[in-house]
Amino acid sequence: MIEMHVAGIALDAITRSPIILLKDDSERRALPIYIAQDQARSIMNVLDQKVPPRPLTHDLFISLFDVWDLTLEKVIIHALEDHTFYAVLCTRQGALAQEIDCRPSDAIAIALRLDSPIWVVEEVISEASIPVDRDADEEERRAFREFVDQISPEDIIRHSQSANPEES
């Protein structure tokens, strides 16, 4: 899994639908997720540090977390099926840990309010992410190719034996 952070919300140029953009720490991969207008507004309130005069749905959840002494340990976006992302809230109440099925947009809105990490399964990132820094990706591929071109089979055997001395 890879920890991701909210980079912002954009609008699709054609459909004008909101898209939440998650980025990894290296900012080399971005994961765009289409979300509803209400969730976009809720997330933007947190990003812009706006507090509504009355609690909205995600704010209500935060109140319930407080009252029931629940901790949101993390959010995991774990699947992508038929263009739909799936997520879970990983919660803890004392010794009881539970995963609660959740839309990614709701999970992100709650995670931002509770300052909880957002994790994405690598297969989802591989399938749905877009490259942000193509030059860095190409440089990494070039460096790996150079490494592979310079290493000999003997070097691999020596390294393998030094890592597992009892197998020699």
Describe the structure.
With 168 residues, the protein is an alpha+beta fold. It is 40% helix and 33% strand. It contains 6 helices and 8 strands; from the N terminus they run βββααβββαβαβαα. It has an 8-stranded mixed β-sheet. β2 (18-24) and β3 (29-34) form a beta hairpin. 21% of the residues are buried.
Question: What is the residue-mean pLDDT, rounded to a whole number?
Answer: 86
Q: What's the number of domains? A: 2
Order of helices and strands: EEEHHEEEHEHEHH
Distance between the termini: 34 Å
Q: Within the CATH hierarchy, at the fold level, what is the topology of the largest domain?
A: Bifunctional nuclease domain
Please outline the major beta sheet. Answer: 8 strands, mixed
Q: Give a count of the beta strands, DSSP E runs of length 2 or more.
A: 8
What gross morphology would you assign?
A: globular
Overview in brief:
This protein has helices spanning 37-47, 57-67, 104-114, 122-128, 134-150, 153-163; strands at 2-11, 18-24, 29-34, 71-81, 84-93, 96-102, 118-120, 130-131. The chain is α+β, with helices and mostly antiparallel strands and 168 residues long.
Secondary structure topology:
Blueprint (H helix, E strand, L loop, with lengths): L1 E10 L6 E7 L4 E6 L2 H11 L9 H11 L3 E11 L2 E10 L2 E7 L1 H11 L3 E3 L1 H7 L1 E2 L2 H17 L2 H11 L5
Parallel strand pairs: 4-7
Antiparallel strand pairs: 1-2, 1-7, 2-3, 3-8, 4-5, 5-6
Helix pairs in contact: 1-3, 2-3
Keywords:
168 residues; alpha+beta; Bifunctional nuclease domain; eight-stranded mixed sheet; 6 helices; 8 strands; 40% helix; globular
